[in-house]
Amino acid sequence: MNVISLPENGRCKRPFGHIGLIVCLLLFFFSSCNSSSGEQQDDCPYDPPTAVFPEGNPQVAEHQFRLDGQVGSEQVVFANGIELELIQSGCTDVRQEFRFRFPKPDTDFGPEGWLDLTVAQFNYMGSIDFSLQPFQEWARAMSQVGADFKLGEPVEVGPGFYVRIDRILSSDHSLLLVELFQNEPG
Description:
Helix content: 10-25%
Number of helices: 3
Number of domains: 1
Shape: globular
Structural class: alpha+beta
Largest sheet: 7 strands, antiparallel
Strand order of the largest sheet: 1-2-3-4-7-6-5
């Protein structure tokens, strides 16, 4: 697992608007893709993805990581019972897709409710280990999208950084889908 370097106080400062946020997001994005282990594709500037979540953390009840070329798939069950599948992919356009599985809610609580749930999940992930604190920066960025947010549509949270939030409801569970990526979606 790559260790993410943060300022001494453990927080990313934003002295020039979004510049501090972007630096933190870049560090986090590329730390999960730029590793010295694994086989690198000839045409890819980055090594294959590595696991994001640390082994042995008491907040991570179960953990598996699989690598297939430039695609990493991480299965996590947190101590609070929430299940996550994290898929990391990309060479020139890095992409991380988070699939959170929850027991089915009584109702679909609307776009704002799904955004609030996303922010809560990213804050939770950022609180379980120092190396995961950049998730809290993503949470802060997502909490500021406001009226620009629509389920299933990408929204820019910083120059060149996007998030797309959606959900899938089934009879026994719900999936919260969160995609983080760089460059404008095609």
